[in-house]
Amino acid sequence: MTTPDIAWPKKRREMHSHHFESTVWNDFRFRDGDIIISTYAKSGTTWTQQIVGQLIFNGAENVPVNELSPWLDLRVPPAEVKLATMDAQTHRRFLKTHLPVDALVYSPKARYIYIGRDGRDVLWSMYNHHANANDAFYEALNETPGLVGEKLDRVTTDVRTYFNDWVARDGYPFWSLWENVSSWWAIRHLPNIHFMHFDMMKRDMEGEIRRLARFLDIEVDETRWPAIVEHCTFDYMKKHADKSAPLGGLLWEGGASTFINKGTNGRWRDVLSAEECANYEALAREKLGAECAHWLMTGEGLDVVRAA
């Protein structure tokens, strides 16, 4: 998708952490039609990878999205391994990133999907992800050579304290939600980006899949539509979690079914106080602006982009 009059985003910096190694994008060779799935993390990334995989492979059983669709800017495995894997693929490629826009290479050749989710729901899912990590998880992130910055510590607090630390310390111990969301929101007008929201996917999954298929220029085979829909349900993904969880779930206690956890929203409602929620919402409006903050919390207010 090339349009000469558009000012495409430029890479401005590198990001390094116990998770990130953004330099991998400097050597990634884009192809026409590449699909880049982007989120803050725990916002519906794996679900969207499953949807895209089902659209590409026409409702096939047991599509191993965890193998086919890597997190390119994760520190492990080494960049050369991931790049070689992507170079060898002959089908339409789809991969994921958790970087803000200015830390990756943005290509007019690719189609980008950005998925949002209320930060409180993100954090509850993140807590499960982090608290259930096993020794292999910490060894991979903290002991692999090339670590820049602090190691990732184990969870030692309850979820409420974890949430308040995450808010007060701008995404600690991971990265900034506000920076990630605002960077993608700022380019929502570009013709090769499509916005989705976890809440909307929950409310109308079939409608969201069809909208996404149109954006990706994938013609849905109606004879396979029931299979595509079934394979994108939470129950199916939970049952086949070894096909979507990284390394088949080997990095979490309880395996892949721990990674594909609940897929629900609102678990924070019975834990956070009214004051804590108000403080979070006020900070979201301050950091993102009222329109973006409203979209992030509800999935509403992006009518121009959603009309695509």
TrEMBL record:
<comment type="similarity">
    <text>Belongs to the sulfotransferase 1 family.</text>
</comment>
<dbReference type="GO" id="GO:0008146">
    <property type="term" value="F:sulfotransferase activity"/>
</dbReference>
<dbReference type="InterPro" id="IPR027417">
    <property type="entry name" value="P-loop_NTPase"/>
</dbReference>
<feature type="domain" description="Sulfotransferase">
    <location>
        <begin position="32"/>
        <end position="289"/>
    </location>
</feature>
<dbReference type="Pfam" id="PF00685">
    <property type="entry name" value="Sulfotransfer_1"/>
</dbReference>
<keyword id="KW-0808">Transferase</keyword>
<protein>
    <submittedName>
        <fullName>Sulfotransferase</fullName>
    </submittedName>
</protein>
<dbReference type="InterPro" id="IPR000863">
    <property type="entry name" value="Sulfotransferase_dom"/>
</dbReference>
